[in-house]
Predict the 3D structure of the following.
Amino acid sequence: MIRRIAVPDTERCVGCQICMYACSMRYGDGGLERSALIVKSLGGFERGFAVVVCRACEDPPCAASCPEGALIVREHGGVRLLSSKCTGCMICISACSLGAIFWDREKGKPIVCTYCGICAKHCPHNVLIVEEVS
Amino acid sequence: MDDSLFRVLKIDLSKMDFSVEIRKELFLRYLGGVGVGVKLFEEELDKNSDPLGSGNVIVLAVGAMTALYPFASKTVAIFRSPLTGNYGESHAGGRSAAAIRMAGYGAIVIKGAADHPVYLDIDEESVRFRDARALWGMKTDITGRVIRERAGKEGFRSIIRIGPAGERLIRYSSAVVETYRHFGRLGIGAVMGSKKLKAIVISGRRTIKVEDKVGYRRIYEKIFSESKGEFMKKYHDLGTPMNVMPLNEIGALPTMNLKHNRFDKAYDISGESIASKRLGRRLACSHCPTACIHIAALREPYEEEPYFYKTEFVSYDYEPIYALGSMLGIGDVDGLLKLIKEVDRLGLDAISTGVVLSWATEALERGILRKEDVIVDLKWGDYEKYIEAVNLIVKGENEFYKYMGLGVEAVAAKYGGLDFALSFGGNEMAGYHTGPAAYATNITGARHSHLDSAGYSLDQEMLKEGKMLSPADIAINLFEEESWRQVLCSLVVCLFSRKIYKPDVVRECLEPLGLRLSEENLVEIGREILISKNKIKEDLGFSFDRIRLPRRIFEIDTPLGRLDEGKLMEIVRKFRELLKS
């Protein structure tokens, strides 16, 4: 059984970005640099939002593309970043078709969702949920 | 304290140059927002310059809690108002505050004037002066679309822009933020227009360091859980238009230029009615769990071709509903939404526009204005005529419309009808005929805005409790309220969350950031800022002795009875004493 983040209905999103603030806060600080997800408008707020977050692929292209083996594939999907192996080549970022891997300019490493659920816990409108998959 | 807040970006449009100054002491003393903004404004303003001259300055400021706590979503803009000639201050949300802080600034000062239209593109690395000649003349919605396509950085960006109204120096033009939020009131749009500044796009991403991570997380979670409370829920459910029905019921909804205090079609334009018929989406400012922004979806046919439709989106709030709805006798919800949309696109302030048009309608009705001057036959409820008229204002079609673009006081001073020209300190009034405290706010508030000290709220409390405070007590209440709001507007939190951010909570929020201030310190800072603002106003020529009171407000009952001018002025006298003490 693994956890992953799901977005059953993006139309519920009001664009508050609290998920992004909550995600950044997992290291204890504020701001948005370390968010592992992004909420962006679809060309004007009235058209709604894209909520881009790792969907824990069963066969993740990011892990397949990593030349250092720094992205470990979890059983049932998703990846775990082994920071010590990562050389910061950024290939995983372009490998993700969703654009769900971000870049931490302060650490020079990718930001990969850990499926902790802090975003879903803070989402005021139930846009993001934590799913258990087996 | 994270030192990115202390950075002040100074942009000179005349020289197309910028610099960054570190103002640590200033931010530590005044927290950001209005507190810091007022000081920067005082330092940078050329007091001899016309508000539309290059010596005017625009200060944008965010605060110590921006990008750290829920509801700290507002940016404060300070400038000399071309509408009143005096102190101008306006607040907007959207993503503006987060973007400014994420770009690495606590404040931005814009001075000088460009020699051709430009827009500013600000990020963490640089400031770019981009050519806006091709954008000049564009309405606010299209301007946003064009810049959005070019700017990139989705999700981390804010676009502040003006429309034709600002370009043509209509004294009450606004700047639109993220299509549905505004720096309204007092004419910041015209100041940007006078500087040939079409837009500002700003973006960034960063970590804001806190000193006590555990403490920060603890107080964050406390505020987050309180944000789900009843007080915020009403803003989420119906949004600010929830006020239409209660104000109408008590007889405080200014209608048809305040010839009446109730509108027989109030329900049709109420929050309840618009939500049930037209609400298409709710939106939030960055870091706001409440999502008070209500967007109506308006499906309209193109008349010339069958089965050819467009769907437009219009943000509606209480103030535009009052000013462009009840004040103009418009009860047709789609007509009202079309008018709001047009006002928005042109980049006009909705409140001032509505008050100017309602004055003109009454003046025409009374025969004070000549039909050939007004061109369109303005009639209560006829929204199509009002849509034509707002375009004539922006065009400056003839001498009459040029005066209309200067504000209700200027046009009434020229053509007559000052007694029913509803402005205070030169600023058109907001939609609360609730009683003496509301009007005392209009007179004494630093911006002559209902939000300065919220007398309308005090009036409604007095009504509910059936207990009238003395003029002196009303003054004390308003003074304390306006003082405390200076703290909230320095931090800069949305005033809708004021019941969460009480002095003890604010103190707790600031501690983990490394700012240790007692509740007394905070209250004292608020008073000091309020007093500084009033000093600046005096320097710029304001005097309480010259305040004009439109007679109309004394002719129509408020829920607390007919206004008594003597008692109203007693509140003002006491307020002045408090400012001096």
Remarks:
- The helical segments of chain A are 18-24, 61-65, 91-95, 118-122.
- The interface with chain B takes residues 14-18, 20-21, 24-25, 27-34, 38-41, 43-46, 48, 105-106, 122, 124-125 of chain A (CB under 8 Å).
- The beta strands of chain A are 2-6, 30-31, 37-41, 49-53, 71-73, 79-81, 102-104, 109-111, 129-133.
- The mean pLDDT of chain A is 94.
